[in-house]
Amino acid sequence: MKDYLPKIVQKVGYRSVQEFLKDFQTAKSEYRQYQIAIAQWKHETGKEPEPQPHGVRAKLAANRKKIEQEQKNTQRTRNQSKDRGAR
User: Residue 18's closest CA among 27, 9, 30?
Assistant: First the structure.
């Protein structure tokens, strides 16, 4: 099993397991800092952060809602022809 680990990380693009572990620890500490910042923000504001839509379907749904709201806000008027066929 230990012989196969270097081959796995090399397939992903790392030179060695130590290089992978270094990047992994960095990412882990950044994620921990992010979680602390979110917890502080929740404590200060007293509310949950709004989830950002991700993925194609979520973006499509958000755009669909936006378009529907814009259509509701626009006024529809009829254009009557000034020439009523009196010729």
Answer: 9
